[in-house]
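User: structure tokens for ATP-binding cassette domain-containing protein, please.
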Amino acid sequence: MIEANKLTKTFRDRKRGLVRAVDRVSFNCQPGQIFGLLGANGAGKTTTLRMLGTLLEPTRGTATVAGYDVAKHPEDVRRSIGFLSNGTALYGRLTAREMLEYFGRLNGIHNSQLRSRVDELIEQLEIGEFQNGRCDKLSTGQKQRVSIARSIIHRPPVMIFDEPTTGLDVMTSQTIMNFIERCRDDGLTVVFSTHIMSEVERLCDEVAIVHHGKIATEGTVSEIKAQTGEDVLENAFLKIAHQLDAQAEAELTR
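Assistant: Done. Predicted tokens:
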């Protein structure tokens, strides 16, 4: 389970001064559920996920992942999550199999247990044909399959996906989305950020629209459409964003 409570992150920028990238974001995500963060680029989605993954420390607010506080027990959180983005982050000189074995050892898996787990993932994700190929020679789709395997080598109960399909072709995107659905079916807790409406409609049980670092609204896709009176999610998203922008502009001119 993931619980975020008023998560806030501020940065100091030379030109803009104090920037509030995430502003009091709160939500819960349960096992067997995909919770989506939907927003434009720069909305604060990635910063939120990086705080959940202990890559960034919250300025204020709290969060627990799999029962562990992200600030007090970061190592326990890292052992409990898999993190997949659109960047493959593979070591080019290692083969696909060597890559999985390396990350398995980093996560404390050794000997026969490691070999069995690597073999299982190679079969499950159809990596066998290129398992002995160096990562820097693999296609984009092949690299992403290895990245998926790397992220779940230690059987984490929580998966975090940060815009994992951005820039990928249709076939590779389908592989990613099928994997996300399988994570939910296997009972994992899944948080998924995107700016692609069709992915939200296909995958998400609950979704929060993030705009300028804040959660503007939250609910199922059907509930968000009903709130705005729109039949299309993209139109609902745009209406909410325009309303918030208009409110912010009115406050500045007071």
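User: Anything notable?

Assistant: The CA atoms of residues 45 and 190 lie 14 Å apart.
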